[in-house]
Amino acid sequence: MSKQPPSKQNPHIPEQAFDLYDEYAHGQIDRRRFLSGLSKLAIAGVSAGALVQALSPNYAQAGQVSFNDPNILARWQTFASPKGHGKGRGYLVHPAEPTEPLPAVVVIHENRGLNPYVADVARRLAKAGFLAFAPDGLHPAGGYPGNDDDGRRMQREMDRDKLIEDLFAAARFVHDHPDSNGRLGVVGFCFGGSMANRMAVDLPELIDAAVPFYGSPPDLERVDRIRAPLMIQMGGSDQRINAMWPDYQAPLEAHQVNYQAHVYPDAPQGFHNDSTPRYRPEAAALAWQRAIDFFNQQLTI
Fold first, then answer.
1. All domains in the chain, ordered by first residue
2. pTM of the prediction?
3. How far is CA 256 from CA 113, 161, 182, in A?
4. How many Å apart are CA 268 and CA 45, to the nearest integer?
């Protein structure tokens, strides 16, 4: 039986388990291979089943801003998506008593729909003074199903082109919202990070700032279309995404795109997600404060 060193932050979870989870979460291996790989990593009497449970999100213990926080107002909002599935739905949050139009941010979820962690991110933005909108890409299929495994399956089975158009329509919706000041940022995680990169390419007239967290690059042949400043956030141990970075950085440099890139040592993909053992509190706090400062700088009129 293989013996892998455990994570410093999570002493019962071998480091290689995080890599296996990343491969499973992104469809590179199926559940059988995921469980088989975990069984070879079991240490100190920790079973593969226990590792699965430890690696899975626990939304009951996460969340930084309550949905009934008196300083914010949150509601579900539908929007038109004529090029997508016809209609989308998302979570709209803003300060309870805005005194002036607000900078807007669209929040793009991972490859599993609008789970409680991403909804909490939208509330954090509202607490910081933004008009935040987190669309649920799974709305046409019934919405986030309550667990990430089913959410991943549902999103994988959707028409990807229509899903992307729905997310574009969500960006247009919040940009044009009566409470918006007309400037729009995008932040996304994993799949959402790749969508943040893509929106900067495909919606240059709309996006004024983009913060992709561990997202794959857009079409490298179209990087010259980017007009918005970028803040690219990466985990130091995220081998899959980091391997793509040099090829992305080259056209960013060649086309003089305004960007900054931050790498957080020893942090895996998903380090910002406080509902999972991949969470790295110090890296997450620093990355988030940088994102808030960046949006304030770029979106405030």
1. 15-55 (no CATH), 60-299 (3.40.50.1820)
2. 0.87
3. 34, 29, 25
4. 24
